[in-house]
Structures are given as C-alpha cells and as structure tokens.
Amino acid sequence: QVQLVESGGGLVQPGGSLRLSCAASGSIFSIYVMGWYRQAPGKQRELVAAITSGGSPNYVDSVKGRFTISRDNAKNAVYLQMNSLKPEDTAVYYCNVHGMGTRGYLEVWGQGTLVTVSS
C-alpha cells in the first residue's frame, strides 16, 4: 500500500507565499511523474504543475512565473512553492504520483490540503 502525506496548506494574504510538501511512503519502487492538482469550489480539478523523474517541470498557464515545483527523489517527495498568491488560487490542492508498486503500475492521490488566499 502506498500513501501520500501532504502538508503546508493554510490561510495567506494576497501576494503571500506558501510551500506545499508531499511525501510518498509504502511499497512504491519507482516514481515517474509527480504533480499537484487543485480543485476550487464548484470547479473541476485541474493540473497545476507536474515534474518528471528527470526533473522537467510543466505548469498551467495561470501559475507560470509564480509557482515552482520540485522533487527530492531520495525522499520520494514533491514540493510546490507558491509565490504571489492570488484569491483565485484558493482551492484544495492534491498531490498525485504515478509509479510502480508491487502489483505494477499505480496512481496515488493525497488527501488534499486547503489553501485559502484572502485578506
């Protein structure tokens, strides 16, 4: 069984910063793509950023230049540094991992962490 544990959400004022962390534990032998999704109230879940095992990042246009995704392969962890936050960034953020476990290919989701941007 593989679990993702997220941390770092909270309340921040517009223009502020937060750093989200996600660590994978359990029987996962290889991790391919790691990413962050978000879901705002009344909206569909969207991909915010993803990073390959080789470190190549990809971002949704709305966060380019403000968010930075990174990963630590030794710790099976992925991070999302969020700067210049806007009220429209308010959402539940979910960590997502694609990898190989004992039963083959797997996709795992974190429990979600709430980010609220408000004055």
* Mean residue pLDDT: 96
Helix/sheet category? mainly beta
Query: What share of the residues does DSSP label as strand, in percent?
Result: over 45%
Oligomeric status: single chain
Query: How many strand segments?
Result: 11
> Main beta sheet, described?
7 strands, mixed
Please estimate the helix content: under 10%
Low-confidence stretches: none
Between the first and last Cα atoms, what is the distance in angstroms?
A: 40 Å
SSE ordering: EEEEEEEEEEE
How many separate helices? 0
C-alpha Rg (nearest Å) = 14 Å
Shape: elongated
Question: Would you give an account of this structure?
Answer:
The chain has 119 residues and is mainly β. Helix content is 0%, strand content 61%. Strands 2, 4, 5, 6, 9, 10 and 11 form a seven-stranded mixed sheet that branches. Strand 4 (28-39) and strand 5 (46-51) form a beta hairpin. The radius of gyration is 14 Å and the shape is elongated. The chain starts with a strand and ends with a strand. The mean pLDDT is 96.
